[in-house]
Design brief:
There is one protein chain. The protein has 76 residues and is α+β, with helices and mostly antiparallel strands. Strands 2-1-3 form a three-stranded mixed sheet, with helices on one face. The longest helix is centred in the middle third of the chain and has 13 residues. The protein is elongated, with a radius of gyration of 13 Å.
Length: 76
């Protein structure tokens, strides 16, 4: 594919304090896996804009201490 933008949305269980940027190493590994699966050509700056780290809406059904990461990939 061509150039894409990635937004990483991090959801916790509650509205408590959170720093979404703390999950960047995990998001980097997820993006590397997407590149390895040939979904994206590469994760260099010619192919990828972001990832932009965002906080998602809390999910009280999630177990305590867990987080969910959703990657949204948008063609540019």
């Amino acid at each position: 594919t061509g150039r894409v933008h990635v937004t990483a949305t991090v959801q916790g269980r509650t509205q408590g304090r959170m720093d979404p940027a703390n999950v960047y190493p995990t998001v980097k590994a997820l993006i590397d896996g997407i590149v390895d699966a040939s979904v994206l050509a590469d994760d260099d700056d010619r192919h990828l804009e972001g990832p932009d780290m965002r906080r998602g809406t809390p999910d009280p059904a999630m177990p305590a201490g867990w987080h969910r990461i959703t990657l949204t990939i948008t063609n540019l």
